Amino acid sequence: MTKVIKNGTIVTADLTYKADVLIEGGVITQIGPDLKGDEVLDATGCYVMPGGIDPHTHLEMPFMGTYSSDDFESGTRAGLAGGSTMVVDFALPNPGESLLDALKRWDNKSTRANCDYSFHMAVTWWGEQVFEDMQTVIQQRGINTFKHFMAYKGALMVNDDEMYASFQRLAELGGIAMVHAENGDVVAELSAKLLAEGNTGPEAHAYSRPPQVEGEATNRAIMIADMAGVPLYVVHTSCEESHEAIRRARMQGKRVWGEPLIQHLTLDDSEYMHPDWDHAARRVMSPPFRNKQHQNSLWNGLQSGSLSVVATDHCAFTSEQKRFGVGDFTKIPNGTGGLEDRMPMLWTHGVNTGRLTPNEFVAVTSTNIAKILNCYPKKGAVLVGADADLVVWDPEKSKTITADSQQSAIDYNVFEGQDVKGLPRYTLTRGQVAVMDGEIKTQEGHGKFVEREPNTVVNKALSTWKELTAPRPVERTGIPATGV
Ligand code: URP
Ligand code: ZN
Ligand code: ZN
Ligand code: ZN
Question: How far away, in angstroms, is 397 Cα from ligand 4 center?
């Protein structure tokens, strides 16, 4: 049984051209004019693009005394509805738990996925066991990315000595270090002070995490990664201070990538001043939304290439869960949704405004991600042999975002009321049509785990640099007598 996508314009990260796409056995088998197949999907007036990859999600994640409310079923359904065909979720070990045991829990949850997925591993504590497990995770489980929380003191946070030890191990094994860059010590101090002064509302969440805490941590992580000789991926880059550090590092030839979120690109900190407590609390996430200047910095980064990808950090909590924090903003579960809206929102505010070309859109929502995470061209490509993870994108199709019509399990949407223009006509996951003209036809359990090997070429570049600065004892002709 073959499928053919006909009459569309293929848009990849570097090319735009008219051609049909033939699919068989879940992969692309032919690209060219006038192709024939058993089933025809009409793409007249549409772009045929690699399906989106969301490199940052938290599905059914235990966090702040609860679990995030979208699981692998509803989360991937939401992603597919919006044109994303792969998610990369974070497996989180409990303190003292082996990385492999944490992965077992994530393996169990992810059997319900409607589209393909992969995992990043979080390093939430440090010890001999983690040191050993890292090798198995990288070499046997095909996971090459490890996140370190520099925030959430007393919970997920790791200190600099732990981070440096972990980064060195990753350098040795060919992994990539990731950081949640916020200075957790300063955030804890600011939070305690704000609470003591009677600032208990959701707006205080933003006051407790100013751009400086993010800029400081990003700079620190870059320097530690540089000393360890490991590539660094900075998740949820939200402000100019952090972007500046990434920009500078990249100009110095360091392998550093920045990941702005669709929320930070399109929503600002005025949301926290809303008179309705629920409205503000629903937008509490870390880092918080920033002002327009920071937003412009992020858009500039995407346009110039100093920021590489756009994610969601999808971590959805219901209004009821958010209300754990009434009277104490530090207890509001941190996180917002976005899986269904990332692609339409970025198209609307990026491509329709002229900030991004369609090719750049593909790069930051899919291809760059697949390349950095090392699953290209299986994912992120429209090429013969690549998985048929595709979105047939109708640039004229529009809607208003509402919680009532969303796939996510929560009762609100942070983009509520926003008009978007540019939506999927079809979304295909390994050749299977999951979305057809707005109709959801997902299949629970269709998703498969995507293995990602270490990118030894990137790490080789860094280890060459390391050799140049390796300590060498100096042969000396004169050594003074010891003592006084
Ligand atoms: O507020 C956020 N971002 N919640 C999810 C966990 C994280 O820090 O990525
Ligand atoms: Zn984070
Ligand atoms: Zn509201
Ligand atoms: Zn996150």
Answer: 30
Amino acid at 372: I
ipTM of this predicted structure: 0.94
> Tokens in use for 131?
């040191």
Q: Are 291 and 267 in contact (CB under 8 A)?
A: no
266-291 per-position pLDDT tens digit = 999 999 999 999 999 999 999 999 99
Give the pTM: 0.97
CA of 152, closest atom in ligand 1: 8
In a domain, 111, yes or no: yes
| Domain assignment of residue 40, yes or no | no
Tokens 């996951």, residue? 429
Please tell me the distance between residue 472's alpha carbon and the centre of ligand 4 in angstroms.
41
- Assigned domain for 43 exists: no
Kindly list the protein residues that place their beta carbon closer than 5 angstroms to ligand 4, a single-atom ion: 313
Question: Residue 410's domain is classified under what CATH number?
Answer: 3.20.20.140
Is 423 in a helix, a strand, or coil?
strand
> 426 C-alpha to center of ligand 4: Å?
28
* Side-by-side strand order, sheet with 2-6: 27-32, 20-24, 2-6, 39-42
CA angle, 401 then 259 then 127, to 5°: 120
